[in-house]
Specification:
5-stranded antiparallel beta sheet, Immunoglobulin-like, Bac_transglu_N, single chain, 7-stranded antiparallel beta sheet, Transglutaminase family protein, C8orf32 fold, Transglutaminase-like, Papain-like_cys_pep_sf, 2 domains
């Protein structure tokens, strides 16, 4: 499916600021499930862009604005072609083979950054207690991850006012509420607690054609989880919407947690009084 994304981030300052240094991670990746055919970035005030790939392979644009300004606008436009993944065509191994692979040094060394807890995905007694409610059956870790995703969707209430950008898994478990970032961190922590590599994904979710009860809510800028199922590979799960990742999802990048893949971040010199406005439009183009 061909999808177009327009993303505008605008900072307005109460007084002129200067020496603004920024990084943005807003370029869709090209991988086995999607291809980014077009991507543009505009900065106001005009600034030169420096582009590189970070440790996780995400495309990063960095720029600086030295002169005084009272507004900073970042606009991006992308065209991406996505597709569903045929689960039946993926390689599969037995549960015993999966467990042997999970214990192997090769897997642990290769995916160590997706196995260790972080500040966002801390493994606590409460987290371990919640995870024990999901047993690994003979069908293996794909079905386990699917049940975990569905369980988080059922056990927690989507509430944009309950948490904030720095909330941890312990906060989510205590409140039983959160947003996509919290749902993703919880699922990642649960996977890592049993030795299953998992990573945080930032991107967009097209829901423009869903009607009535087909979706719990509409949110264009989104976060979900990729789990490395031993013997199969990385598979995407969206616990917020109780869904497996398919053509509706456009991936920007991944990391250990939200901190690794913040879409826009930076520093500047000047007043702390600012307002932020973000507008995202995700639409399906005619084939």
């Amino acid at each position: 499916m061909k999808i177009e994304i327009n993303h505008v981030t605008r900072y307005s300052y109460a007084e002129p600021v200067s020496d603004s240094v920024n990084e943005i991670r807003l370029t869709p990746r090209t991988n086995y499930r999607q291809s980014c055919y077009h991507h543009e970035v505009w900065i106001e005030p005009v600034a030169s862009l420096f582009t590189y790939e970070d440790y996780f392979g995400n495309r990063v644009h960095s720029f600086s604005v030295s002169k005084p300004h009272r507004e900073l606008a970042i606009r991006t436009k992308a065209t991406v072609v996505t597709q569903d993944q045929n689960r039946d065509s993926l390689p599969k191994v037995s549960l015993r083979e999966q467990q042997e692979l999970m214990r192997s040094e090769r897997l642990q060394n290769r995916y160590i950054e997706y196995l260790l807890p972080t500040a966002y995905t801390e493994i606590t007694e409460e987290l371990s207690a919640y995870t024990t409610g999901f047993e690994v059956g003979p069908e293996g870790y794909y079905e386990w991850a699917k049940r975990l995703s569905e369980g988080i969707h059922q056990d927690f209430t989507y509430d944009p006012d309950a948490t904030h950008v720095h909330s941890k898994v312990s906060d989510t478990l205590r409140l039983k509420r959160g947003v996509c970032q919290d749902y993703a961190h919880l699922m990642i922590a649960a996977c890592r607690s049993i030795g299953l590599p998992a990573r945080y994904v930032s991107g967009y979710h097209f829901v423009g054609d869903l009607q009535g009860g087909s979706a719990d809510f509409e949110q264009a800028s989104h976060a979900w989880v990729e789990v490395h199922v031993p013997g199969t590979g990385w598979l995407g799960f969206d616990p917020t919407n109780r869904a497996e990742v398919g053509w509706r999802y456009v991936k920007l990048g991944h990391g250990r947690d939200y901190k690794d893949i913040v879409p826009v971040k930076g520093v500047y010199r000047g007043t702390s009084r600012q307002t932020l406005d973000v507008a995202v439009d995700v639409r399906k183009l005619e084939e």
